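Entry for the shared binder. Reason: the reviewer on the internal report wants the predicted structure included alongside the sequence.
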Amino acid sequence: MTDVTGIESLTHAPSLPRTPREASERGAIQSVDRALGLLIAIAELGGETTLSALALRTGLNISTCHHLLATLVRRGFVAKTIGRRGYALGARILHLSHACLQVELPRRAQPFVDRINQATGETVHLAVLQGAELAPLLARKARHALRVDTDTLDTSGAVHATATGKAILAWLPENEIVRILKTQGMRAFTPSTITDLSTLTDELRLVRRNGFAIDREEFQPGVICVATAIRDHAGAVVGSIGAWAPTMRASEEHIVRMRHEVIAAARELSAELGQPPAEAVPASGGRTPQED
């Protein structure tokens, strides 16, 4: 006869107590999961909401929500709204988003950079704005023996003097443009560099109207660059792509070719990044600022 006493006792035996480390890890994972759930909930509720709405959305009690949100506020992932007892996504979220995009953008842009290089034979740059500095993320050298050597060029303080910089700058809020230019200054790299804010403002207006930027020896003597903006899923400008050519090769016909290839590539890349279809720039790019 089978003795089931041992089996019975094992079945009803109490579970072993968790070690402090196991309990701590379980609690930490749960807290992270709940905190991330709150961030997702704020985003799904339009980027700004109230404590009670978050509690309802996530199924957490008010006290738990409040403590988690306090931590997220301290770390900058959530911000308390002014004049209302509510919460919004914080600036740190945008910082992480930009960092992620700057890792992903070069991979997405590589085929388009190669295509412009193949079609024009010229040096091609992918650039972004990091704080107040213009930073190249990706470059493809010209296919000609005589070419623009961008390896030795420091564009960090030349957002106002390069086509890649102006293509981004043109779409920023006015106060942000002023902040960047005050931080970086408006250094004269060549006699053609625009160093007056009013003149640059007029130039940026043309960039917005035409859908592309151009610099004619404004940053580097003997070099012309044509660039246009790249947009993300929200229609925000996240960078620019431009082709650089020596002036001896930059006939008006060649500039038109460069302009066409740059605009077409930027449009397709923006579509890959989720740019809304309603966002449009002129197909042919219109007239250059100098031709206006």
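Summary line for the report: The beta strands are 48-50, 78-80, 86-89, 123-130, 133-140, 213-216, 223-231, 237-246.
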